[in-house]
Amino acid sequence: MSKNAQMALGYKKKRPFNAVSVPAEIVINIVMTLFCAACVIPFIFVVIISFTAEESIRQIGYSFTPVSWGVEAYKYIMKLGDQLWLSYFNSFFITIVGTILSVLICVLYSYALFRRDFKYRSFFSFFSFFTMLFGGGLVPTYMVCKQMLGLSDNYAALIVPLLVNPFNIIVMRTFFQSSVPEELIEAAAIDGSGEYNTLFRIIVPIAKPGIATIALLNALAYWNEWFIALLYVRERAKIPLQYLLMQMQRNVEYLAKNSANMGADAVAAASKLPTQSLRMALVVLIVVPIAFAYPFFQRYIIAGLTIGSVKG
Amino acid sequence: MSRVSVAKKANTTVSARRKKTFMLLTMVAPGAIWLILLRYLPMFGIVMAFQDYKIYTKAPSLINNIMNSNFVGIKNFKFLFMTKDSWVMIRNTLGYNTVFIILGLLISVTFAVILNEVTKKFVAKTYQTLMFFPYFLSWVVASYFVQAFLDPTNGLLTHAMQTWGMQPIDFYNSTKPWPYILTIAYIWKSTGYSVVLYLAAITGIDATQYEAASIDGASKLQQVFYVTLPHLKTMIIILFILAVGKIFNADFGLFYQVPMSSGPLMPVTQVIDTYVYRAMIATQNYSMTTAAGLLQNVVGFICIMVANSIVSKFDKDSSLF
Amino acid sequence: MKKKLLSLVLCIAMSATMLAGCGSTGSTETATESTETTETAEAPAAEETTEAPAEAATLDTSTPVTLKWYLHGSTVNDDKAVMAKVNEYLGEKLNVTLEPIWGTWGDFDEGSTLAINGGDDVDIYFTCSWSADEYNSFAKKGAWVRLDDPETNLLANYGSDIWNITPEVLKTGAEIEGSDGYGVYALPGFKDFGTQNTWDINVTLLEKYGYTLDDIRNTDYYGFGDILKTVKEGEGADFYPLLVEGAVLERMVDNSIIVNGDAGSLNVLSYYIDPTDVSKDLGSKIVNKFATEEYKKFVEQTREYYLAGYIDPGCANKQTANDLRTATQLDGKYLIGTQSYALGYEVQASAERGIDVAFVPCTPPYVDKTSTQGAMMAISTASKNPERAMAFLNLLNTDPYLMTLLEYGVEGTHYNLNDDGLVVFTKEHDNYQPWRNGMGNVTLLPPQEGEGKDFFTKVFIPYYEGAKAIPAFGYQFDPTSVETELATLANVGEQYALALSVGSVDPATALPEFLDKLEAAGMSKVVDEANVQLDAYFANEQ
C-alpha cells in the first residue's frame, strides 16, 4: 500500500479500519466500473433512440449518434392525455399497497418457517415450495381468480395475484437464518414477550436489509406487471401504466405482423406509427420512476455495508 | 420435586407450546390461504395434460369442460420426443442452465463480496444501482440493443470489422458465437438481481466478527473465507437448489428474442420452452403446453428432492425443508 | 424423509379434496344453469317445429337481455355516447342491452382464448382464420354454436335477412366441420375477402432507369435479373432492390395456396393454381410444397439474387423484417416488393411514400377458404341467449343506422357528413375507433372522404364479388389426427423456411437437410392424411 497510490486516488482522509488495500480497491473499482458501464450503456442507448427521429432510424438503423433528433414518440404517447397520468397513479397505488401487503405476508410466513420450534415447520415449507414448481396453468388460474374470487375490474385484481411469492418466502427465511441469532428469540420468550411482539420489536429491526430486499423485489414485480392487467382489467380507468404502454407496443407489433389480414385502413394505421422510437420511449417512461425509487430501498440494503464503521 | 408439581409444570409447558404453535399458525395463515386459493385450487387443471380438452357445449365452464373431455393418456407429451431434434433442445436447455447456474453463482457472490469492500458507501451504492438496470429492460429491448451491434448491414460491430479490414461475420446466420453471446446476455441481466440478495445477506453479518478476525491477524482474503462465505453458505445453497429445480425451464425471452428467433441459429438456441412455443403457435393446443410444463416441473421436482436430500445429509440448516 | 413424504401426501390429498369439493359445487351450479339454458334455448325451437315448421320463428323479446360482444382491433377509450344511443335503439328493437368488450390488437388473442377456454359468459366473439381464437379449431373444440343446426337453425329463424344477401362464396367458406357436424359456425362479414398477390413497384425509380411497367408485366420473378442488376449498379452497394416477405414471395412465385386448416406459421401443405385462370381445376393433389421442383427452382433463384446483393439480409430476420419493410417502403428505397393487395392501396401507398407506386398482379383476385374466413362473428356456446345474439347480428348487418352508429360513432360528435354525403371524422373520433372489417357488413356504411361517393356499390362490391373461387374451394384440412406431427413440423419449418425463401442460406446444403428433417418429423403422414381428406371431399361434392 503505497502513499503515492493513495495520493493518486485522492484519498486524503484516513482509510477506515480493516479496509481492503488500496491496489485491491483500485482493481475492484475497475472491474465494477466496467461491468456497470455494460449495464447502463444499453439504457442510455434506449434513451437516445427514443429521441431519435424516425427517418434517422430508417437511414442508419439504431445508432448512438443519430442523424437527426425528434420527439415524435413522446408526442404520440402524450396523446393518451389524462389516461397516462391516471395510469401512473394506478401503478403507484398498486405498487405501494401491494408491496406493503406482500412484504407483511412474506415476513410473517417466513418467520414462522424460520422458527425451528414451530411444529408444522417442514409442512408449511413444503407447502409453499411445492407451488414454485406446480401450478394449474393459465386457464384454471384465470377461471378461479375471475369467476370464483371475483378478481375482475378492481384494484384487488391487480394486487392479489402477486401477493405471495414462494421464492421470496424461502429467501426471507434464509435472511432470518443468516442474521437472527436464535438465542434472541429464546431470551425474548423467557422475558414473556409475545410472538408478534418478538417479531416486530426485536426481529424486524435486525432483519431490515433482508426485508428491504424483499420489498424491493416485490415493488419491482408490481411495477413491471402488465399481464395480470391484460387478464383481469378491462376498465380503462383502472389499468396501470405498464399495461397501458405495453398495450401500445403490442398493438404496434400485432399490426405490423398481421396487417395483410386486416384491410387497407389497418395497414394505413400501422404505417403511421413511430414504431421504433416509440418502443424505446415506452421503456424510458416505465423505467425512470422505478429507477428513482430504487435508492429508497437501497438505503436499508447498503446501510451496514462499510465494514470499518462500527454499528452504533 | 413432588409428582404434582412435575405434572403441573408439564401442563403449563404443554399449553404454552400449544399457544406458541397457534400463534405461529396465525402467522402462516394469510400466506397459506392465498396459496390454497390461487395455487392449489387451480391445480385440478393439471388433468388437462392428459386430456383432449374440449368445450362442453351444453354448459361450458372450465370444470364441466374438464369433466367431459376424453382422456388420451400420454398423447400430449409425444410431440416433445418425436425427432432427433428433441435431443438438441434437451441438451441445450440442460447445458445452458448448468453453465448459467455455476457461472452466475461465482460471479454474483464475487461481486457481492468485493462490493462490500468498496470503502465509499456512495460509490458502492452507485455501482449497485447501475448493476440493476438490465433487470428493468425486457429481453425484447435487449434484443434490439444486441442487434444494433450485430446487424448485417447497420451493425456497429459489422462496421467496425469492415473498417479494420476483416470479413464481417453474418451473426444471425452463424451458430458459433451464440453460446457466448447468450451466456454474456444472461450474466448481464441476472447479476444485479442476485447480487442484491447476497449483499443483503452480507449486510446482516455482525461487524464485530470482522473486527475480531482482523485483530486476530486474519488477512482480508482470510476474512472472506472464514467470515463472509460461511455466512453466505445458506443463501448460496438455497438459491442453488432452487435453480436446480428450474434446470429444465429455459428463459424464453433470452433464447427466442435475443437471437431474433433466427432459424439457422436454432441448433444452438432451441430450448424446450421455445420448442413448445413454436409448436403451440402451429396447433393452438392448450393441452400440449400443459403437458410440456408438467413434464418440466416433474423433472425439476425430482432434481430438487435429490439435491435437497443430499444437502440435508450434510447440513440440515441449509436444506429447503 | 418420512415427514417429507407425509407432507407430500398431505398436499396431494388437500388438492384432491379441493378438486372434489370445487368440482361438485361447480357441477351443481352449472347443472342448474344448464337446465335454464336448455329451457330458454328449446322453448322457441319447440314452438317452431310444432306450430310453424316452414316459417321463421318469431323472436321472444319479452325479457330484457344483456349481450356481451368481444371485438378485435379496437381503439376505444370512451364509448358512452355511442352505447347510450345503441342501447336505446336496441332496447326498442330487440329488448337487448349491448355490452361490447373492445379487444385491442395486442390483447385480443390472450383475452379471447382465455375467456373461451375458461367459460366466461360472453355471447358473441369475433373469430377468423388468423386470430388466436381461430374459427376452425375452436369450432372443433365446441366453442361456437352451430348456426344452421337442423334443430335450432338460428340462421333461418333469426338471421335470414343477412343470410339471404350474403354472397354464396362466403356461405360456402363458412362451412366447416365442427363439434356439431358439418355446417356454419359463424357469420362471415362482407369485407375484402379476395386475395391478390402483387409486385409492389417503385415506378419512379423504375422509370429513372428507362424501364416501364410493361417490362415487369411481361416477365416473371425469374426474369427480373437484368432490371435488378441495372438498378443495383446505379444506386450503389447500400441499395437492395428486392424487398420481400419470405412466405409471401414463395406463394407469389410458385402460385401455391394456403390450405385452410393447416394453421400456424409454416403452412407445409399446398397445391397449385393456374395463375391465369385461378378457378381452373389442375387435378388438385396436396403436396409437401418444399419437396417440389418449383420450390427448388425458386430457392435457387432467390439465393442467386441474395448473393448478388439484391435482397437486404435484414429480410431474413423474422423479428424485425416487418419494421425493415415498412421503413424501406416509406423511404422509397426499393424497386420491387411483395404486397398482398387491398383495393385502392396504390393511392394511399404513393401518398405515404412520396413516390409513384403501382401494383402488378401475379394472378387475378381469387377467393380461398382462408380469406373468406377473414372476419366473422360467432355465438359462444356459453351464451344463454343465442337467439337474441343471432337477431342482433342480423340487425347489425342489415341496418345501416345501427352499423354506422357502432362503426363511426355519433353523427355530429365523432363524424360529420360533407356535401357529398361522405364521412369526415372529427377529433373525437380518436376516442372511438372500432376496426372496420371486424364489425361486419362494411358495405352498409357511408364511404369515407377520399373513397368516393359510390365506393362500395361501384368499386368494392364488384371487385370482390368478381373474385373467383379456387378449385377445391370448400375443402378444409382437419389436422386433429396429426397434431403431434404438426407441432414438430412447425419447429422444423421455423428453422429453414424463411431463410430459404429469402436466400440467406445455401439451398444446396440446407434444402436436402430441411427435407430430411421434415420427413423425420412425419411430413408424409400429414400429406397422406390431407389427401385422404381431399379425396373424401371430392367424393362428397359429386
Automatic annotation (TrEMBL), chain A:
Keywords: Cell membrane, Membrane, Transmembrane, Transmembrane helix, Transport. PROSITE patterns: ABC_TM1 (PS50928). Residues 88-291 form the ABC transmembrane type-1 domain. Gene3D superfamilies: MetI-like (1.10.3720.10). One of its GO terms (biological process) is transmembrane transport. InterPro entries: MetI-like, MetI-like_sf. It is a multi-pass membrane protein. The chain crosses the membrane at residues 26-51, 85-111, 123-143, 211-233, 280-297. It is found in: Cell membrane. This is Carbohydrate ABC transporter membrane protein 2 (CUT1 family). It comes from Kineothrix alysoides. The lineage of its organism: Bacteria, Bacillati, Bacillota, Clostridia, Lachnospirales.
UniProtKB/TrEMBL annotation, chain B:
One of its GO terms (cellular component) is plasma membrane. One of its GO terms (biological process) is transmembrane transport. Its main location: membrane. Belongs to the binding-protein-dependent transport system permease family. It is found in: Cell membrane. Keywords: Cell membrane, Membrane, Transmembrane, Transmembrane helix, Transport. Residues 90-307 form the ABC transmembrane type-1 domain. Pfam families: BPD_transp_1. SUPFAM superfamilies: MetI-like. PROSITE patterns: ABC_TM1. The chain crosses the membrane at residues 21-41, 94-115, 127-146, 180-203, 224-248, 294-311. It is a multi-pass membrane protein. This is Carbohydrate ABC transporter membrane protein 1 (CUT1 family).
Automatic annotation (TrEMBL), chain C:
Keywords: Signal. Residues 27-56 have a biased composition (Low complexity). Gene3D superfamilies: Periplasmic binding protein-like II (3.40.190.10). InterPro entries: Bact_solute-bd_prot1, DUF3502. Residues 1-20 form the signal peptide. Residues 22-56 are annotated as: Disordered. PROSITE patterns: PROKAR_LIPOPROTEIN (PS51257). This is Carbohydrate ABC transporter substrate-binding protein (CUT1 family). It comes from Kineothrix alysoides. The lineage of its organism: Bacteria, Bacillati, Bacillota, Clostridia, Lachnospirales.
